[in-house]
Amino acid sequence: MAAVASVTAQAEIELAEGLSLQGFLDVSASSSDVDGKDTESTAEIGEFEVDLLYGGDSVNAQVDLNYTDASGGGDLEQAFVGFSVSDQVSLKAGKFLSCIGYESFDVNGLYQYSAAASTVYPGHHTGVAGIYSGESFGVYASVVDGTWSADEDPDDLGYEVQVFTSPAEGLTIKLGYATESGDAYDKSMVNLWAGYTVDALTVAAEYSSLEDFGAAGDDGDAYMLMGNYAFTDTFNTTLRYAHVDADWAEIDEFTISPRFSISDSVSVITEYRHRDYDVGGADEDLLAARVLYSF
């Protein structure tokens, strides 16, 4: 069963039988200010990633190498091996991305420039996972070294479970739960999202319930609504609203992000984002642009 499709098509480069390469380069510029002052501007190579993929009859593997200006160096983002037990059941082990959340971790899968304020998903972690995927229903479960912390410490394990379904053409619904054991408390979240694509329109809604998220007793809720419409083959626009209502923050966010496709592999993504912070009464405006090359 397929999830909502990525917004950026990637044509894998075949290196040998069963072995291929894909990736992307993100060059970005942005300017932000808080309450009309304290402007911060950046212009950088936001991210460069190369993914090696191997696919055999029953064994597959993937290694993602990633560079960001923020980290100032390279990173082994993913490295896992998978095994197909049957057409519906598969296993994987290694370092891989969390199953939780609607918005893509990598920028080449985002409909807009930035991730929403409500996007507080786990990232990459090391462990084992099992997936059952039928025609319209599936289940994912994993045990990892730390759902959020990924600290390579087996004493504090993390767990994820997700059920997903596609009851109608173009519609995907996923309900997930993630938790991580700690010395003082257990951090956890419930995440529910639905995405629907019909012709040129894609819409999505997401809700997350957060428990003991920043510290013991820190709970909250996060919401996101998104719509993307392709006016032509080369121009589409995303509107997004996000809200966080938590013990540590209350945020209202509105985003508009026009996107221009220069070619099959090159896109220009622009964005205006406004955030209101209840704590302190501040507001923030972001103007940004990204040139994205995918291969």
Short description:
By secondary structure, the chain is mainly β. The chain is built from no helices and 17 strands. The protein is globular, with a radius of gyration of 19 Å.
The total count of strands amounts to 17
* 3D shape: globular
CATH topology: Porin
User: Stretches where pLDDT falls below 50 for ≥5 residues?
Assistant: 1-6
Structural class: mainly beta
Radius of gyration: 19 Å
Give the number of helices. 0
Cα distance spanning the termini: 25 Å
As a percent range, the share of strand residues is over 45%
**Spatial sequence of strands, sheet with the most strands:** 2-3-4-5-6-7-8-9-10-11-12-13-14-15-16-17
Q: What is the H-and-E element order? A: EEEEEEEEEEEEEEEEE
Helix content: under 10%
In CATH terms, the superfamily is Porin
Domains, number? 1
Largest β sheet strand count, sense and barrel closure:
16 strands, antiparallel, barrel
Report the top-level CATH class: Mainly Beta
The average pLDDT is 91
CATH architecture grouping = Beta Barrel
Provide structural commentary.
The protein has one domain (13-294): Porin (Beta Barrel), CATH 2.40.160.10. The model is unreliable at 1-6 (pLDDT under 50). A 16-stranded antiparallel barrel has the order 2-3-4-5-6-7-8-9-10-11-12-13-14-15-16-17. It contains no helices and 17 strands. It is globular and about 55 Å long. It has strands at residues 13-16, 19-34, 37-55, 59-68, 73-84, 89-97, 124-133, 137-144, 158-168, 171-180, 187-198, 201-211, 220-230, 235-246, 250-261, 266-277, 283-294. By secondary structure, it is mainly β.
